[in-house]
Specification:
Layout: H1 3-53, H2 57-66, E1 69-71, H3 75-80, E2 82-89, E3 93-100, E4 105-111, E5 114-120, H4 123-169, H5 184-228, H6 235-261, E6 269-273, H7 274-283, E7 293-297, E8 302-306, H8 307-324, E9 330-335, E10 338-344, H9 352-355, H10 374-385, E11 388-394, E12 397-403
Parallel strand pairs: 7-9
Antiparallel strand pairs: 1-5, 2-3, 3-4, 4-5, 6-8, 9-10, 10-12, 11-12
Helix pairs in contact: 1-4, 4-5, 5-6, 6-10, 7-8, 8-10
Length: about 400
């Protein structure tokens, strides 16, 4: 889960809790005020009834001032726009506590034909405190939202940094992160840009060196091959031709391997059949004696990959099979998403991973050319395609498989 979604989830949880606490606090405050006013109204009702029953208006007004009560003249309007929250009636009198539509609480007393509607002025102070509390909660919610937006603004550049690093890892070495931030994220961006510049310079230098080496080696190798054709046939000519071919092949494989290591080459993906792949691989070997290889297409399945590079991988497996097989032919079997190269010989004495390291050879291969760059290049190519290279030994056969599925 990304940092953005973690922050968003935490914000939503905090925001929901804040709203819940605000609602519960508002209800509790409202209920407390209502309970206190009801209790006060009920307590003073008997004393006010005394003044009503004696029809002593002067004393009643004085008492109302002491209690900080105010008489409401427009009784009809307030009675029609209020609801009863408490009611108590006797034969001669009745007490009603009303809640007006503006949330203010009123006391309505009636004795025989006399009635009075009053309001406790002091409740305004309680409601003012309640409003202040609501404003404070609203301010907290606002601060929470502002903090969330500030955090989003702070972590937003991380998305760009992550995307840039991913693109850089995929081979876009000219990419740099643009930022004007002076905080830790800005420092990370600056450090990355400095590192990217150094890496780009190193890769450029290496590519130039490899290109020059390849060019400088190919020319003398080609001239040497041409010169060997003019030499009389002998065992020394055969050894020389073989050595030149090995150097030429190693140079090509080394350049291909470095291109893959540096993410310089972008795979040209296309659809083709397993039979097409095998035919393309065999064409790269230039085999004169076709009896050395037995091809079996048990099921011709479809592959989506770079035909050129994948054929190089299969060509290397076939070439290793030809070099190491103690008895020909070797077998190429295509079936159910895998292509297997089978050759007779001794079982490998080390795990497959050992032979997939560059310039690695087994103890039994000192006098043969193979397991140098071949399997390393095969592994790199298959990793690029997210395919698998597997090996097992069965009934005297070394079996290397390219697993497409």
């Amino acid at each position: 889960m990304s940092i953005f979604f973690k922050v968003l989830i935490l914000f939503l949880i905090s925001f929901s809790l804040m709203i819940f606490v605000s609602n519960e606090t508002n209800k509790l405050t409202q209920n407390t005020i209502e309970s206190l006013l009801k209790e006060k109204y009920i307590q003073v009702s008997d004393e006010l009834f005394t003044y009503l029953s004696n029809n002593n208006q002067t004393a009643l007004d004085k008492k109302l001032r002491e209690l900080r009560f105010k008489t409401i003249a427009n009784k009809k309007h307030y009675l029609n726009s209020s609801k009863i929250v408490y009611n108590y009636e006797t034969t001669l009198s009745s007490i009603n506590i009303l809640k007006h539509e503006d949330d203010k609480y009123l006391l309505y007393l009636k004795y025989l034909d006399y009635d009075i509607l009053v309001i406790d002025i002091s409740q305004n102070e309680n409601f003012a405190k309640k409003e202040l509390l609501n404003y404070m909660i609203l301010a907290d919610i606002t601060i929470l939202i502002i903090l969330f937006l500030i955090i989003l603004k702070m972590i937003y550049p991380l998305r760009g940094i992550s995307k840039s690093i991913r693109s850089f890892g995929e081979g876009d070495y000219s990419l740099r992160i643009k930022t004007s931030s002076k905080d830790e994220i800005g420092k990370v961006s600056t450090t990355f840009n400095a590192m990217a510049t150094n890496i780009e310079e190193l890769i450029t230098s290496r590519e130039t060196l490899l290109r020059d080496i390849g060019h400088e080696l190919k020319t003398p190798i080609a001239k040497s091959k041409l010169a060997t054709e003019m030499i009389e046939d002998s065992k020394y000519k055969s050894i020389l031709k073989r050595a030149l071919s090995q150097i030429d092949e190693m140079t090509s494989e080394l350049l291909d391997l470095e291109k893959l290591n540096a993410n310089q080459y972008k795979l040209q993906m296309q659809k083709f059949s397993s039979e097409t792949l095998i035919a393309e691989s065999l064409s790269k070997l230039f085999i004169d004696d076709e009896t050395l290889i037995d091809v079996k297409i048990e099921s011709d399945f479809e592959i989506y990959a770079d035909l050129n590079y994948l054929s190089i991988a299969l060509k290397n497996l076939i070439d290793n099979g030809l070099k190491y097989s103690v008895k020909k032919p070797i077998f190429i079997v295509a079936n159910d998403g895998s292509i297997v190269v089978k050759s007779r010989g001794e079982k490998l004495d080390k795990p497959l991973e050992f032979y997939c390291e560059a310039f690695t050879q087994g103890d039994n291969s000192r006098n043969q050319a193979g397991y140098g760059l071949g399997l390393s290049l095969v592994k790199r190519i298959l990793d690029k395609h997210e395919f698998k290279l597997s090996y097992h030994y069965d009934d005297g056969f070394n079996q290397f498989a390219i697993n497409i599925k």
